[in-house]
Write a structure and sequence with these properties.
Layout: E1 2-4, E2 13-19, E3 24-41, E4 48-49, E5 63-69, H1 78-88, E6 93-94, E7 99-100, E8 103-107, H2 122-133, E9 149-150, E10 160-161, E11 164-171, E12 174-181, E13 187-189, E14 195-197, H3 210-216, E15 231-238, H4 242-259, E16 260-261, E17 271-280, H5 284-305
Parallel strand pairs: 5-8, 15-17
Antiparallel strand pairs: 1-11, 2-3, 3-5, 3-17, 4-8, 6-7, 9-10, 11-12, 12-15, 13-14, 13-16
Helix pairs in contact: 1-2, 4-5
Amino acid sequence: MKAIDISEIEGFRLGTAENKEAATGVTVIICEKGAAAGVDVRGGGPATRETDLLKPENMVQQINAVVLSGGSAYGLEASCGVMDFLEDKNVGFDVGCGVVPIVCGASLFDLHVGRADIRPDRDMGIKACEAAFSGIFSLGNHGAGTGATVGKYRGPERMMKSGQGASAAEAGALKIGAVTALNALGDVFDGQGRQIAGLLSEDGNSLASTSDVIKEDVDRQFSVFSGNTTISCIITNARLTKAQCTKLASIAHDGYARAIKPVHSTADGDTIFVMATGEVEVNFDAAAVIATEQISKAIENAALSAEPAYGLKNAKSLIK
């Protein structure tokens, strides 16, 4: 198995758009020919769009795009722009009198970072699509990662800047990768189990353990800071059914658990989508192992690629 750039997975177009002043943005993953898809939502505070149609028993078998955005539930509007853009290109589910682009999405909460009155909208969704068709896809403080932060259990004064990350691998004919906008309540860990981002110490010069701090509150109620949610999309050329895509999304949450601690809190809306173009027959369990690894690596990449912004430190500023 070898690492590849996520843009090397054929059949997908990835694009980003953002408003840096408002600290929010949109990431779009487009599959014009349609991809089998699934989703698994584990966090207690999700903001999602068109996830019910991904249930294996429901009619639609393929989707055309996944949209990851900031803006909390307001940011779901960006998906309408993606629909408009794809309709103009005649991409979507044929309903006889035209096409309906099948666009799923999830949003994270970043309203506290920049300007709460400016959120991803229809126009930003269109701009992300234009970027995707121009081959413009950026990591770090871009797309849905523009206003992303981590380590928020003690409020915004002790949180850190994170961003958008990606990771992909090739094993034989199989290609599989993940895009993640990292906006977790908890702390972030690398592949060696080292904490690289998260809750700052009281003096702001080192990292503290969110898990330890939460356990201190076991006998009292502490108002959990609500500006969270990590959202991801796995893309692959594997031949998977809707049921397998759904199962893969479920298994891939293990990647969240390896890289984010604690994870799936009541204040996170953690969501993973899967899109599969169906080009390559694979051993499902092998694909699931690789996908889970790419999720963890994308999370690590999201922390390490973030730049300091909005008065917040980034991971690299604390790594010795």
